[in-house]
Structure prediction request, 315 residues.
Amino acid sequence: MAGAKASKADGSVTGETIWLDGEFIPWDEANVHILTHTLHYGLGVFEGIRCYQTHDGRSAVFRLPEHLRRLYDSAKINLMEIPFEQQVLHEACLESLRRNDLAEGYIRPIAFIGDGAMGLHPGNNQIRVAVISWAWGKYLGEEGMERGISAKISTFSRHFVNSKMTNGKTCGDYVNSILAKREALLEGFDEAIMLDPNGLVSEATGENVFVVRDGVISTPERYSVLDGITRATLIELARAEGYDVVERGITRDDLYVADEIFLTGTAAEVTPIRELDHRTIGIGRRGPVAEKLQSKYFELVSGKLAEYEGWLSYL
Prediction:
């Protein structure tokens, strides 16, 4: 597989085929009605999953069952019933990569409410499901993986746990992230870090946050953040390397005096922050802890760590 289909310069993506409601159809024919309920009101759920080319030339999707379990959990949280067994979507994800000729790529399963009833209550509108895959490089840039990125504390607060349940990856929730991301970019930063309503660190716009101080790695408690699969992976890798990892409340000034800050997520992978609110973080570039864990992460997803082989679903 050559991975010929890629993101365009403007960020748009293209490919050969998309899985929609149980069958593969041509990319340009994967359309929905303008009265699709999710388009108007935002209630849908999705996942972001990556496939990597491994060291032996094969391709493997990273933690596919865990991602699909979270998709179904998100649907349950939002009173949506996905009309396909999880194994069907598992195979659709793998086949999507094959049919789009992708040795590496990003996979987006999404469940959404179709057209029919309007108003806030969707009635008996069909729950529709799609799987899309495309080539996608480093979300926050190749240079950012080594040099680190700049970030700001957003003026937008993250969702409160009881105003919108934080353990579901719900489509409409990401309006909050879009506002914060746009604000950061307009002000010349690469990313935004968002605080919860109590003023404690929550997440970046699409990533979990880790802070290093005196050799101890801290990350916000799960009640206020999405329980990220990359987050869980990095915690396990860090502890295996002998680091202390603590889930705790983190303040804004904890970030300013950190030795290192790095972000994790399926798209962002492991991306360090070199500057926050015009303050240099640590040595002003990727620190030793982020570099070590970044290296272990890429060894893992490339199939070089036999103890984590069970996390890879080969094509």
Remarks:
- The chain is about 25% helix and 25% strand.
- The mean pLDDT is 94.
